[in-house]
Amino acid sequence: MLNKIFQINLTSEEVKTVNENGHHSVPRQICKLDLSCKPNAVEIAQEALENGYYDHVANIRADNLEQVFEYGNIGPEFKIERKPHFPMASVSVGDVVANEDGYWLCARCGWEELNYEPDGLLEEFPTTDLNRY
Question: Buried (b) or exposed (e) across 74-98, using 16+ Cβ within 10 A?
Fold first, then answer.
């Protein structure tokens, strides 16, 4: 099954702002931090999706979400198709996976289903401005 991996990446300008002004100076960074420690991570992820904070970084061929997590951390690499414009970090808390069953948040413990259904579930999503990187 095809699983699209979405992660939140900061632009070089956002990294500079965080370095100069702290983690809470960039909304995308605040979201990343909140996803890892706040109890309402599902709502945070859904809002981040709606705000276009996630980038489609890779596709992973796997039978289930547990395999997505395994392959996204230790391989095998041939199961991963990395997108050229965005770096993919290992699959971890706060990442979103889209597959034929829906959208899933990698939670602190297991996976949480997201109530998110854009047009064309497995189409390229969201439309990301490549010039921002």
Answer: eeeeebbeebeebebeebeebbbbb
